[in-house]
Amino acid sequence: MIRDLQYNQNNSTEKILGLVFCEFDIDEGPKIKYQKPDNVINKQTINSISSYIIPKVHLKNKIITITIGNYRICGFPIHLDHIKYRRNMYIFNLCFIFDKNTNTCSYEAVVKKLACDLRTLEVESEFLSNENLKQHLPKIMEQVQNSLNETGECIIQRIANLEHSAIYLKLIRNHLDPRVVQSCDVPVFVRSKSEFEIDDWDLTTQKIVSAINGFKTVSLIAKETNIESSVAKEAIQNLLYSDIIRLVPIIQYSSMFVRTPLIAEFYSNSELQNDAVKFSQFNKDKEPPLFYDIFMVLNMFGHGFMVKNVIELGNPIEKNIDIKKLILFALIQGLLRKINKYPISLNGCQSESSAFFPGDCNYDKICSENGISIQKIEDQLDEDQNVIICIK
Fold first, then answer.
1. E-strand stretches of 121-244
2. What is the pTM of this model?
3. How far apart are CA 71 and CA 99, in angstroms?
4. 19 - beta bridge partners?
């Protein structure tokens, strides 16, 4: 299993920057009562959008999201009518503050659920209108922010020592449809198996999970587990959707890879460096490899350089580096990308190899789907003048 730091970093803008509790004061109008962390947003910003933070009745009980300056603010204003309140009403809104580029759709259910939980606490126990009870709210806001940012869920029980009071929140991330799984793809775990219950899955998925090692292609996994290819692809697609695995290209000695701009960030990220050293260590009984050697080996990858060339020139085994594991790590983190070869038939001609190549399939896919080696397809195509090879 490889921790996908690239994935986590890409989602860093989705973190909650803070929470702001606003209410309508009969004398002062809309006002900020609490902020966590303190001064996460200034009073002038809230005042400029107060008509949406503490809105008129027609906008109550609705998700309202506003982008202003560098922030995106998401709230669910609550209006309570009762004779016990001054002017017979109480209005509040607990707003979530995000970076302006955050897609807040996945947070809307949490914002609404928390607002409704606070409404219930107020109706049943006067949690918000009683100042002695309300003073517990800043701690709740802080816990909600920290828990959702760290684990995506928050559980708070016996709020202010009130009987039968609790808040349960769980963040459900929005997922884009994952790309179609190909026979030549290699599934790799990015979450530990201890984080999910394998026994709860269907038998097909259990077999596939047991066969995944980070180097076997989808077609090889299907063959080893005696599962039909289409069924195996569907099960792997589900694992991909659940963020349990990532798909990487197959790693062979004839494969070519090139560095990406993220290699520069790798040089200054000590956490990523430590992970690379641990994961790529070839012999666990010897001293772990030096980061300097790992970085030098990765920087040898460039256009025209195959894995076997890097092995010959860099001697990774002597440095206690498992080259295939290092490449796998670099692919997951986005430090390397693969250069593929695409055969293209000229003028729509049938090639001498009895196959037509429209240019949308690379060597990996052709070999995986037809059960042949790269050497065999290269031997067939080298002498075929009706086929050219596009490398990209």
1. 153-157, 166-170, 186-189
2. 0.63
3. 5
4. 36, 96
